[in-house]
Amino acid sequence: MEPFGLAVHASLEGSGVSGLNVLVSGCGPIGLMNIAAAKALGASKVIATDVHPLRLTAAAKMGADECINATEESVYETVRSLLGERGVDVAIDYSGQATALKELIQSITHGGELRLMGVPSHDILLNLEEWLFKGLIVRGLHGRRLFETWERSTSLLVTGRVDLSSLVSHRLPLTAAEDAFEMALNGQSLKILFEPNGSCI
């Protein structure tokens, strides 16, 4: 619920996602949750981008209409081929990567929204002129809104409009913690659950 709340908050903020074309950059667990939340909340089309094939496969399962491997193709050119010159209405970034942000800016329509969720690991150079002349609305998001986000998240899960069970790629004992973190860092897992007392299912 805690990480899902972030995804729901990112989907509801600003102009929301209903009837809009949405680009989700970074398909870690919360980005994947955002794909499912955006679809459930009425997004017209959801496009996902990442560099790990496992995550992109998961993005398709979570409801993404198009999945782009950013190491193999241009995000901007692919978005343009799908939506024309207009581009997406909303881009939500979970990657915190400079190259990803650059392509997101190119892919957003004039007056569209950029919602920042990912935290960069270092300073990033920004072309503010491009942001300015596009008239972008930029929202830095952190956490969620209490209690609105919990209520909407609960409703999406209880009604079955969102199913998060496929995000759990591994269930491991605590003794395998080192291997688990290695898998996570190398993009070989989605969400790993530790089961200190053995299997829960």
Shape by Cα distribution: globular
Strand order of the largest sheet: 3-2-1-4-5-6
Which H/E pattern describes the elements? HEHEHEHEHEHEHEHE
Low-confidence stretches: none
Q: Could you say what the CATH topology of the largest domain is called?
A: Rossmann fold
CATH superfamily of the largest domain: NAD(P)-binding Rossmann-like Domain
Question: Which CATH class of the largest domain applies here?
Answer: Alpha Beta
Secondary-structure arrangement, i.e. CATH architecture of the largest domain? 3-Layer(aba) Sandwich
Describe the structure concisely:
By secondary structure, this protein is of the alpha/beta class. It contains 8 helices and 8 strands. It has 2 domains: 2-158, NAD(P)-binding Rossmann-like Domain (Rossmann fold, 3-Layer(aba) Sandwich); 166-194, no CATH class.
